[in-house]
Every structure is written in C-alpha cells, then in structure tokens.
Amino acid sequence: MAQTSEFQIAKHLHKPLNFKLLKPLTLFFSSSSSPSSSHQQQHQQIAVTSAVSILTNQRSKSRWNTLHSLYPNGFNPTDFSQITLHLNNKPHLALHFYQWTKSKSLCHHSLSSYSTIIHILARGRLYSHAYNTIRTALLNSETETPLKLFEILVKSYRDCGSAPFVFDLLIEACLQSRKIEPSVEITRMLLSRGISPKVMTLNSLISRVCGKLGMDVGYKIYREFFRLDEEKYDFSKRGFRVVTPNVHTFNTLMLCCYQNGLMEKVEEIWDEMCEMNCDPNGYSYSLLMTVFCEGGRMRDCEKMWKEMRKKEIEPDVVSYNTIIGGFCKIGDVGKAEEFFREMGLVGIDATVSTYENLVKGYCNVEDVDSAVLVYKDMCRKDFRPDALILDMVVRLLCDRGRVEEGMEFFRSGVGKFGLVPKEKSYEALIKGLCFEGRMEDALKLQAEMVGKGFEPSSNIYEAFIGGYIRQGNEEMAEALKKEMVQTHQ
C-alpha cells in the first residue's frame, strides 16, 4: 500500500481515526513483537481503517477518486483482503472494490486475496460473480494448481463466513477449464471432511469423467462419491451431509452408456434407478426407448410408452421422434404415422427429425409417393433435409423410372438448401439418364460429379456403355470399355 501518513488520512476524512473499526484478523497478520514490526502493523491498520471508512462512508461518485488520490500505488494482496473482510456484509461494495482494483491495476492479486473476495461474494449469494472470480484466479495463477486455491479457500472459510457452495463453484470452474483430475481430488477431500458437493455438481463431474476417462471410471466415481459401496450406517449422526443420486444422475449415466454403445449397461442403470426408488422422468424413458428402438425391440418400447403414460408423464417431441423412428426402422410406417398424428393432436410440433424418420421409413418400404409427399411437406415448413434423405428419395425415384422428377429433387436440394449430394445420387441419376438415352445430360452430370471429387465407378461406365449400345454407337461403347478396364485395373 502507498506510504500515506496518518495525518493526511485523518485530515482528508475530517475526523479522528477509529481503531475499533478494525477487528483482529490473525489470518493475515503475523505476531512479531519487534518495535519496527509493531509500527508497521499500526500503519497498516490505520491505512486499512481509512480505506474501509472511505468505502463505507463516502458517496459512490467520490469514494474512488478519494481512494486513488490517497493510495496511488494501490494495495498489496494482504491489505486488500483486510479491507474486503470489513465489507463482508456489503458484498456489492466489496465486488465494486475488487473490480476497481482490477480495472485500475491497483492490486497484484494473489490466491489469498482472490480467496477472500470469492468467499465474500459467495456469502452474499452473488453466484455468477463468485464463479467468474474463481475462473479468473485459475487463469491468472498458472503456476498454482486448483488444489492450492482449494487449500486457501478451506483455510479462510470460517474467517470469511462463507457458504458451502463456494466449493461447488470451484469444482464447476475446474470442469469448465477441463481440469478433470483436480475436480475429482477436490471432491474426495471435501467428502473426507464430511462435506459433499451438491448433486448437480456431482452429476456434472460424473459426466465429464465418463467423457474423458471412460464409462467404467465414471461409474466407479459415481459409486464412490455417492458412498454407495460403504457400509449402511447413518452418516447424519457423524455430521455428514448426505447427498443421494437423483434422476439426472441416472440420466447422465444412461446417456454416457448409450453414447459408448453400451446398450445392456443402459438397462442395468435403469434397473438400479428403480431399485433406489428414484422415479424416471420423460428423458429417462426416451433414453431407454432409444435403446429398444435401435435393437428393433418395439414391443418393449411400446411397453415403456404405456408405462410412461400411466404415470402421467407427458411425452415430449424427443419421445415421439424416438418411437416414430423405431417403427420406421422396422418398416411399420403405419404405426409410425399413428404416433405422428397423435403428436399433432396433443399440440407438439414436428421437427426435421420427425419428417426425416418418416421419409426413411417410406423409402425403406419403397413407397415412393408417400416418401415424396412427406419430403415436400418438410420442405414447405422450411426444414433443411439431410443429404442422406435427398439421396434416398432421388434413388427411389430413379429406380421407379421417374428420372426427371429425381432431377428436380436433386436440383432443389442443391440450390435451395445447399446440400452436398452423395455419390449414389449422381450414380442413380446418370444410370437413369443413360437408360433413357439422354447421353448429353448424363455427360454434363458426370462432369459435375467429377468436379465434386467423385471418380466414375464401374457402374457409371457400364451405364454409359449400355446407353451408347442402345443408340447403336458401338465405337463409343468400345472406347469406354477399354477406358474402364484401364481405370479399374
């Protein structure tokens, strides 16, 4: 802190200094008894007291100029912490003081000073500001680890009168910075002290662990952090804060299993959720039904649907898309249409996935007219179809000899939606054009295909050869045969 005399401070404040404003804070001051040390401590106390008085007694417009004029060189981290602690019941003022020191570069903050303001903000329930300050502390202290910040937060916790969720914010900040291992270690140390993070924090941690370290490690962490493998005794009698998994915990685990292709494990997690008397929600059902649909187990899927409706859990658009997609996959498009109509009756708007499922379903059963109708309806609603959907419709139209209509769909998808056609779309159209004897159109499309990076396949050569033979152009057909042999040796 700048060397400002007691006389200057008192004169500026227009009243005598009151040392009673300053409570003894052993966390920051040493107990040296030497005269020089005592004088230095006294000077620090006077300076801190004056800064607190200016902050709390002067108007907001003048306090910052006053502080800057008295302390042009700013504050050291220890003095900042002292001042901030005296503002513990004025968290917004403490926040403004912190932001002012940052904007004016008046304090080279350490983990200790960061810790103090973090606690004060947490105490005042200023969640987002506390979280952002933790992120800043981690970013600006690259040589220090998150575990060091945790250690300092623990030591200063009582003196700052903080709130337990400050550690949840630390864990979330670590996860956001992809510091997975420190997050796990911090959680373990909290649990060893009888403190558990909130279930929402644990769910985030489990999800990140599953994503980075794999489902097996994530599941072990879940069992460990919810104390599911410990002996059954009353934690509350030992002062432990008991946290139990909720439906979002199990949804997180089931989603991780599904994303890793562990379909049987999804069912195991579902059974575990039911055994722990945790009621599934609509998302839980959607996850399990997705597993059943991908395995073609539509009877099991319908059973879950009925169970969900019996529990008065209203299916959402994800649930409807899941079951519609499942029936389309096994070729029961009629059943899928029933759920599609029901979806509209209950007021749930279809999405692009809804229409894509139906188009795929009709293409799979080779009902080209229905596929075209659904595709056109999807485009009227300004949904952007996937290139795979366009490819399926074009190929089906060409197979039915409706090449010109296929060309219209092809050009519409490329021109209106900017889709990049699949190689199979070009192949189907070129074969159809060649069969109809439209060799010039086929050649133009083949040149476009090459321009997109697709090399002519043997099927393309055979289509052109067949087309030229039907036209009686044996010379061109023979030339293409030789070229095909050379190209595909």
At a glance:
With 489 residues, this protein is mainly α. The protein has helices at 6-13, 35-57, 60-70, 77-85, 91-103, 111-123, 127-140, 146-155, 157-160, 165-176, 180-192, 199-213, 215-225, 247-259, 263-275, 282-294, 298-310, 317-329, 333-345, 352-364, 368-380, 387-399, 403-417, 423-435, 439-451, 458-470, 474-487.
Radius of gyration: 35 Å
Report mean pLDDT, rounded to a whole number: 87
Strand runs, count: 0
Largest sheet: none
Task: Supply the helix-strand structural class.
Answer: mainly alpha
Q: Order of SSEs, N→C?
A: HHHHHHHHHHHHHHHHHHHHHHHHHHH
Distance between the termini: 82 Å
Helix content: 55-70%
Instruction: Sum up the overall morphology in one term.
Output: elongated
User: What amount of the residues lies in strands?
Assistant: under 5%
Structural summary, described in words:
- It contains 27 helices and no strands.
- The model is unreliable at 5-34 and 232-237 (pLDDT under 50).
- Helix 20 (352-364) packs parallel to helix 22 (387-399).
- The protein has 489 residues and is mostly helical.
- The chain has helices spanning 6-13, 35-57, 60-70, 77-85, 91-103, 111-123, 127-140, 146-155, 157-160, 165-176, 180-192, 199-213, 215-225, 247-259, 263-275, 282-294, 298-310, 317-329, 333-345, 352-364, 368-380, 387-399, 403-417, 423-435, 439-451, 458-470, 474-487.
List keywords for this structure.
single chain, 489 residues, mainly alpha, 27 helices, 70% helix, elongated
